[in-house]
Amino acid sequence: GYDDADAASNILKVKRAWEFLRNEFQVREIQLDSAPEKYEGQIDDALDIHAGGWKLEEYGIRVDAIRQARGDAKLLKMASAVRTALFMARYQSDIQNKGGKSRDLEQKWIASTLGAAFLPGGRDDQDMTCAVRFFATRLGWGDPSESEEDVMPVERMDALLERALACRQRLDKWVDQTRSGGSKVVIRDFVCDINWGTSPWASDQLGRLADNAAAAMRAEAGGGGGGGKAMPTRDKALGHMDMTLSSIPAGQPQDLLLYVVRLLGRARADDLAKVKASGSARAKRLGLYRLLKAQKFIEFSETDVDDREKKNYEKLEAMQPKAKIVSREKMDSFYERLQEDTQRRRAALEKAMNERMAKESQIVKSSTMFSKSK
């Protein structure tokens, strides 16, 4: 019957899951016993040692749910989690090895912001020149003609990275709360609620420097929105970083320092910590600038995808015939009638099947085939 088939199917699933995990555990020198009372502890040990290596939490897998499960359920959950982790690792590897589309998108971004003739340098000296000019003119860290040591001292970079790390912590907490609530995580919806005007942030002087830079840019543009010329939207001398007050995407804080902290706060915490722990000041300057540049490109990519989806949706909507608008009450009434009709049909079907089975049973009992042998 169906129950026997389901039981056999479940046994096969458990067997395959155990064989899969046994092979994966052997690679990591962990023995997996076939008895549930033994392999439960072995799975927990594997989670303690290798959950980070598998990046289970990074891929949205609930490790606590695996730990709480027992018996076959624990085995199946663990196998599913490891399969997901291995798939995501292969997928990310393919993305890195087949980065043609990403490179095309980067070319489009460069062409739209810097001009088609501008090619990314990649050399340290070029990036350093761009970094010094960006932090000097946009965040008020000094004058572009000054040396990199004067414009980007270590303590100032550390202060910015500390803000970014604090923002990243709030982002991680927000992601966990959003997922726990069953909502879809959209990083762009995150708003960092840290009050940068309080201690210890107020003492790092970054806000004062950024305010001075913003005032200088507004004065240069003719007084900001007061009838002067528009704010510049491109500065090729800044290299790959095209950021002005007028180029901040809609819905974001209209403050370049807040915007820069938000971008850096989207980077991985270990990447931020790695830059902060750089062995030399020059490496820290280049790492900070390149990390910011990478996050700016990611934001551009997301905006590009959103624009494409919006245009495609608008085209699809234009092709659809105008549908009649039905009120909620009519929809509810229709649904109730549909449910009642479905129940009547199901009852009629069950009645017909019962009558048929009764007739067949009666025929079998009266058949001479089943009469006693003479």
Structure summary, number of beta strands: 0
What is the CA-CA span between the terminal residues? 35 Å
Radius of gyration: 31 Å
Q: How many domain modules?
A: 2
SS class: mainly alpha
Give me the number of helical elements.
Answer: 13
Average per-residue pLDDT, rounded, comes to 79
Query: The biggest beta sheet, please?
Result: none
Query: Which spans of ≥5 residues are poorly predicted at pLDDT below 50?
Result: 116-122, 224-240
Which geometry do the CA atoms define?
extended
> What is the beta-strand fraction?
under 5%
Percent helix among the residues? 55-70%
What series of H and E elements makes up the topology? Answer: HHHHHHHHHHHHH
Brief description of this entry?
This protein is mainly alpha-helical and 374 residues long. It contains 13 helices and no strands.
Notes on the protein architecture:
- The chain contains 13 helices and no strands.
- With 374 residues, it is mostly helical.
- Residues 116-122 and 224-240 have low confidence and may be disordered.
- The chain is extended.
